[in-house]
């Protein structure tokens, strides 16, 4: 299957969504933006829950909406799964009844998953006889995800499935979402306003602001852009794909990435395990000479590739490359002047903190 | 109680059952439309449905009598179809009662449908259920308390009607003479003992109906998808 094409214009009182997107037909695409940016409206338009006049949507060569031809496939005829922000289980059915609801309604030949498999994947096998009202928020959301998967969707849409949960429940569900990503070949479009979730799960990133797309591209590349609108600069930072290379003395683990290696506090993962690290721009500082006698372990030789203003007065965002891997550093305008930073200049980047995303 | 009293009770139960069944069929789409529409006609239709709540039954009965009479539009239609005239017949009483009890069916149903909200319908659509399928597999089970209250109220209200029956049905034994009319006859004839029997039955019946409703109530507040 080739990619996804989505083009919608929706006018509301005081709000306008206007997008024209090409998305990859595999992996997780995150729709990221602040509240009111139009993420949920876009997802609803894709599902056909919202009908955009003049809209167009195609999944591969299957067209679901093409208003110029008067084509609009109603939601119940689209092979999609949708996970709402609140689990929205049917109260009048047991957990098993909820799981069966969608599965019973697809042709037998299309039932790709067995309920027991999916229940196992999401860790809800012991809940089948329970009523939704007796489940915790995290359990409910996992049932909702399983229910959507059992319709064997060709596209899975998730609207902030973790937003209504507290941190503990989030951490409980995230591993299951990663398994979906790793084990199922279903493209997922995932709406979120939590940068950590996006950094952890997404392969492709779409940034939305006030109803328009401000950036769309592969996750690492897009996050490393220095020219994003100021609204996103506060959370600026890159995601680096790394592999566990060695467990060293002093309770440290060495991770290798394209262009270098990085030391972090000892990790439980085995050597060869893939990990994503998030490095915030505010945790990267720059020096012209290699720092001597510093407590910071992770220092890289890097080349400045772009410099951009931020919406915080006196601060700039510097994009640099460590080998093939981009980093962002947020420094003051004065430092930039004093160091005389220019595109192409070699510097030493000191990384104060690395967040590992499992 | 003699056979005419038992006949009146039987007739009343038959009337209320038929009317309740008809109202379940006719009231559900009206309530669904009222709960879901954004049309400007919503207020008008809602007010018309609620009219029997405030109109004196004699007024409603009077206009229905005119409409179903030999010069009324309904009367001309039924005569042209060879059905004869409806006033002073059981079918005529059924039709009048359907109008009279309509709000008692529609309003609880409308409230139940509104309480379900949009979300369960959207969820069902993303799980491949057509709108018709969704209505039966999601809306009806979730609105069950509304259906129960509507049916109980419509039944009880039909049992208790008097004014409309007098205007439309008169007082024909085993055809239109329901319990409330029978009591009226006994009182007019100064047969208080027989009135007591029937009146007492009505008090007990009404109390039981209300008891049933108020014990159902807590469940009516729940429902929906969470």
Automatic annotation (TrEMBL), chain A:
It comes from the Bacteria. Gene3D superfamilies: 2.40.50.100, P-loop containing nucleotide triphosphate hydrolases. Keywords: ATP-binding, Cell inner membrane, Cell membrane, Membrane, Molybdenum, Nucleotide-binding, Translocase, Transport. One of its GO terms (cellular component) is membrane. Pfam families: ABC_tran, TOBE. GO terms for molecular function: ABC-type transporter activity; ATP binding; ATP hydrolysis activity; molybdate ion transmembrane transporter activity. Residues 293-358 form the Mop domain. Residues 1-235 form the ABC transporter domain. NCBIfam families: modC_ABC. PANTHER family: ABC TRANSPORTER I FAMILY MEMBER 10, MOLYBDENUM IMPORT ATP-BINDING PROTEIN MODC 2. This is Molybdenum import ATP-binding protein ModC. The gene is modC.
TrEMBL record, chain B:
Signal peptide: none annotated. It is a multi-pass membrane protein. Residues 9-217 form the ABC transmembrane type-1 domain. It holds the Pfam family BPD_transp_1. GO terms for cellular component: plasma membrane. SUPFAM superfamilies: MetI-like. Keywords: Cell inner membrane, Cell membrane, Membrane, Molybdenum, Transmembrane, Transmembrane helix, Transport. One of its GO terms (molecular function) is molybdate ion transmembrane transporter activity. InterPro entries: MetI-like, MetI-like_sf, ModB_ABC. The chain crosses the membrane at residues 15-35, 47-68, 80-102, 151-172, 197-216. It is found in: Cell inner membrane; Cell membrane. PANTHER family: MOLYBDENUM TRANSPORT SYSTEM PERMEASE, MOLYBDENUM TRANSPORT SYSTEM PERMEASE PROTEIN MODB. Belongs to the binding-protein-dependent transport system permease family. CysTW subfamily. Part of the binding-protein-dependent transport system for molybdenum; probably responsible for the translocation of the substrate across the membrane. This is Molybdenum transport system permease. The gene is modB.
